[in-house]
Specification:
This protein is of the alpha+beta class. The protein has 12 helices and 17 strands. Strands 1-5-6-4-3-2 form a 6-stranded mixed beta sheet, covered by helices on one side. The protein has a 5-stranded antiparallel beta sheet with strand order 16-15-14-13-17, with no helix packed on it. Helix 8 packs antiparallel against helix 12 and helix 10 runs antiparallel to helix 11. The chain is elongated, with a radius of gyration of 26 Å. One of its GO terms (molecular function) is protein serine/threonine kinase activity. It is an enzyme of class 2 (transferase). It catalyses: L-threonyl-[protein] + ATP = O-phospho-L-threonyl-[protein] + ADP + H(+). Keywords: ATP-binding, Kinase, Lipoprotein, Myristate, Nucleotide-binding, SH3 domain, Transferase, Tyrosine-protein kinase.
């Protein structure tokens, strides 16, 4: 961004018109505040500024001229650096605490390996050397293009992220306003859920996958409550801060809903993730909380056929039933994320304990006290299917060997949202079964 016209960006941003920055600067040749004296309504209409937006702009100009120290949008959003030079952002306190985003100097960043790239530019691993001497691991998104649409998406993402505060949503630390523009966020060192599912799908605990699903639902419930539509909820945009901690990221396509509407209709010629879009999004470009729910339902498995996904072989029936609810053709028949958070919590897979050793080359091997995550079970079944949490192997085992988990053997449960249940969901393994 040209330092000489940073005032123009701040002025437009105060009235939510920052996307017109390049059009106003270059199209109308506005480089000084005095130049607005020669601008007509027709000039602003020519660059896409509507009449209601023009009124907001003229009002902002009056305030700019009459106020000696205007409180700009930039100051409100990026007040991590106070006017006296002190640092009130994440660099000045506990890195885990939530503070307002900061204006970051490019010299404070040390960039490392590339983590990803796209039409917007490149994301790199980095370190932020904060003014008070703290060093934070970060991810740095650099804007490659100066095209208006790309800049608009970048600014939209920054504006959105600065208002978000949830443990399952990637946190924005701040931005660099010198060229190239950079967005600095917390680092999720284990990469994306997509990479994990593709690379380690046969050696990942099913109980942990349920926990990640519960966390993603909780993060989306938070966005839903703030009337945000993500529009790009995919496994590649869910990042792993730790083995048992998922965070939703990439808010470039996210849009806020006005109070009087329940959906957003996409303008023509915009990029959308066709492969996991809801039917109404593909037909008429309509996005809503319900279309995000559809995306949540296909988050865990990528298929190329244009059909509803079959139940994965190692997916508990309870969780698959939740996925099916997300794929209702009518948006009104899908659960909202508040309901979905409860449904996922209630679908927590049952866990049992092996009572003795079991060895059969065709079955799931067990040692005494092995903890098992149950996939298929029922009082009428002689054998249950499950995953051995010690070996991560999946297979069938005699149901008679399953017993309730003893308190001394159970690991402290990683709680999902709202204190998810740890009890068995479909019967207790201690109940009497049909003789097998």
């Amino acid at each position: 961004m040209d330092p000489d016209t940073q005032w123009l960006y701040q002025l437009l941003a105060e009235v939510q018109l920052e996307k017109f920055y390049l059009r106003v600067r270059d199209g109308l040749n506005i480089t000084r505040i005095e130049h607005f004296a020669y601008v007509k309504e027709s000039d602003l209409e020519q660059v896409g500024v509507s009449k209601p937006a023009q009124r907001r702009l003229w009002d902002a100009l009056k305030r700019y001229k009459t106020t000696t120290r205007p409180r700009s949008w930039m100051a409100k959003v990026f007040s991590g650096r106070a006017p006296d030079g002190t640092d009130s952002g994440p660099g000045g306190s506990d890195p885990g605490s939530r503070g307002l985003p900061s204006l970051i100097q490019d010299s404070e960043l040390v960039l490392g390996e590339k983590l990803g790239s796209g039409s917007f530019g490149v994301v790199r691993r980095g370190e932020w050397h904060t003014p008070n001497g703290r060093v934070l691991p970060v991810a740095v998104k650099s804007l490659r293009s100066k095209q208006t649409d790309t800049l608009t998406d970048f600014l939209q993402e920054v504006t959105t992220m600065q208002s978000l505060d949830h443990p399952n949503i990637i946190r924005l630390y701040g931005v660099v306003l010198t060229q190239p523009l950079k967005m600095v966020t917390e680092l999720a060192p284990l990469g994306s859920l997509y990479d994990m599912l593709r690379g380690r799908q046969f050696e990942y605990p099913l109980a942990r996958l349920w926990l990640l699903a519960a966390q993603i639902a909780a993060g989306m419930e938070y966005l839903e409550g703030r009337r945000f539509i993500h529009r790009d909820l995919a496994a590649r945009n869910v990042l792993l801060a730790a083995r048992d901690t998922a965070k939703i990221g990439d808010f470039g396509l996210m849009r806020g809903l006005a109070e009087e509407t329940d959906h957003y209709v996409m303008s023509a010629h915009r990029r959308i993730p066709f492969a996991w879009c809801a039917p109404e999004s593909l037909r008429v470009g309509s996005f809503s909380h319900s279309s995000d729910v559809w995306m949540f339902g296909i988050l865990w498995r990528v298929e190329r056929e244009g059909e509803r996904l079959e139940r994965p072989p190692d997916c508990p029936q309870e969780l698959y039933s939740v996925m099916r609810k997300c794929w209702a053709c009518s948006p009104s028949e899908r659960p909202n994320f508040s309901q979905l958070t409860t449904l996922v919590a209630e679908a927590r897979p049952m866990e049992v304990q092996a009572t003795r050793e079991f060895s059969d080359t065709r079955k799931l091997g067990l040692l005494p006290n092995d903890l098992l995550t149950v996939i298929d079970h029922g009082l009428e079944l002689c054998e249950w299917k499950g995953q051995n949490q010690r070996t991560l192997a999946v297979g069938w085992f005699p149901a008679s060997l399953a017993a309730p988990i003893l308190p001394a053997s159970r690991q402290p449960p990683a709680q999902g949202p709202r204190g998810s249940p740890s009890r068995p969901l479909l019967g207790d393994p201690g109940e009497t079964r049909r003789d097998c």
